[in-house]
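Structure in, sequence out. Go:
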């Protein structure tokens, strides 16, 4: 008798990702070096999604000749967080993951509590991956998480890229992999239940002080009540379609960027005006970020203000942007610089 359908689905998703990691590893490996098996880490909070992922990684990795380890991040935001992090490390060790470690971080305030915690977490995961020489880090984001991300992007009015949600592969050199984007949260929880895996439910996930928590507890259920079941699946499909569109437009914008600059590299307003709006705004966004504006703080309304220097020129003054970046039209050129 085979594994429970939820366990089978979880393992299959992880197996596919590990195959991709192995192929990437072979493609980039120096043939003169010894063929050491790649290390794949799982980011494990102790919740159902990441525990299901850790279990599947521990099961599948040895069959493919992959080393498997895990890391949990202690955000130090709750009493007893260090003890819980140690418990997660113990659970990963029991599963056979090695190395298995906890990384303690200090969460700042930039961008709000959720963004600050995310920044600290990814910095810790990047550090762990570099320290251990990991080929990839697996993240337990599910289809439900993807749906929430799309709705948050829609609420911010941040454009097609924001609506594309989380990528299956992201980070430097494709470090981060998300095997569960096509699986729902209940599948992961059921996989933990049938395997008797202990699960810790983070109270922050139900705390209405956090935007994503309110969306999870109130927003999505209200949408499903009004529109019927299938909202999560539809939002996940929207993410993939939006990602395909955004990738195509980003490629077009990268090509266009070279054609709208003068001999000194400055952006020419007349040439920018001739571009389709979706392409022009991408060129502007990239230019602003390159000067030093943080991508996470740069919203559609900021780019619209810069865009009006091109399409609605009425002698406007300097546009102030996040990161102390300024944009100004001077002599038919768009000048973007640190203020």
């Amino acid at each position: 008798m085979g594994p429970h359908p939820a366990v089978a689905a979880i393992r299959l998703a992880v197996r596919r990702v590990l195959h991709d990691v192995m192929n990437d590893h072979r493609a980039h490996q120096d043939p003169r070096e010894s063929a050491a098996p790649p290390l794949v880490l799982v980011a494990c909070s102790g919740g159902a999604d990441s525990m299901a992922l850790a279990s599947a990684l521990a099961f599948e990795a040895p069959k493919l000749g992959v080393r498997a380890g895990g890391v949990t991040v202690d955000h130090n935001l709750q009493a007893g967080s260090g003890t819980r992090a140690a418990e997660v490390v113990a659970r990963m060790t029991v599963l056979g993951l090695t190395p298995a470690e906890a990384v303690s971080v200090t969460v700042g305030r930039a961008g709000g509590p959720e963004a600050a915690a995310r920044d600290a977490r990814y910095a810790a995961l990047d550090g762990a991956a570099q320290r251990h020489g990991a080929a990839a880090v697996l993240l337990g984001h599910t289809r439900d998480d993807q749906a929430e991300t799309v709705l948050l992007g829609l609420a911010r009015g941040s454009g097609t890229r924001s609506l594309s949600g989380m990528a299956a592969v992201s980070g430097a050199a494709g470090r981060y992999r998300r095997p569960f984007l096509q699986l729902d949260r209940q599948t992961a929880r059921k996989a933990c239940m049938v395997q008797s895996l202990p699960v810790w439910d983070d109270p922050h996930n139900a705390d209405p002080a956090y935007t994503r928590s309110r969306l999870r507890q109130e927003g999505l259920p209200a949408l499903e009540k009004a529109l019927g079941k299938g909202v999560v699946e539809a939002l996940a499909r929207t993410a993939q379609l939006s990602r395909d569109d955004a990738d195509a437009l980003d490629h077009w914008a990268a090509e266009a960027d070279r054609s709208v600059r003068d001999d000194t590299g400055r952006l020419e307003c007349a040439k920018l005006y001739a571009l389709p709006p979706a392409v022009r705004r991408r060129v502007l966004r990239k230019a602003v970020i390159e000067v030093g504006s943080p991508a996470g703080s740069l919203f559609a309304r900021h780019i619209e203000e810069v865009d009006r220097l091109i399409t609605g020129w009425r002698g406007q003054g300097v546009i102030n942007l996040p990161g102390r970046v300024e944009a100004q039209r001077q002599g038919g050129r768009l000048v973007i610089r640190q203020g």
